[in-house]
Amino acid sequence: QVQVVESGGGLVQAGGSLRLSCTPSELTFNILNMGWFRQAPGKEREGVPCINWDGITYYVDSVKGRFTISRDNAKNTLYLQMDSLKPGDTAMYYCAASSGTLCSNSGYWTLHWLYTYWGQGTQVTVSS
Description:
Helix content: under 10%
Largest sheet: 7 strands, mixed
Number of strands: 11
Radius of gyration: 13 Å
Strand content: over 45%
Shape: globular
Order of helices and strands: EEEEEEEEEEE
Low-confidence stretches: none
Distance between the termini: 40 Å
Number of helices: 0
Structural class: mainly beta
């Protein structure tokens, strides 16, 4: 059974940093499109960045220059480095994975229903 496990969330003050990690088991990691989504209470689930198997990345405008998605195929691990955090970044963050060509400049990577595998989420809270 595929499991996607996230870690690294927590409470941080505005301007601080956090790094999230995600490890999908039982999957061929290096062929996956991987992404991070977030969902705040009462809001839609939002695509934050994605990364494809070639290491090409795409970001939502609100996090460009502050967040960095990366992957270590040797360790089967996906990362999200979050710097200059703002209270508006507060949300549950989810790791997602899919095969195919989802993570591209088409913009489809932001559509959460197109991802096959999901983690349980990790809470990020940014205080002002």
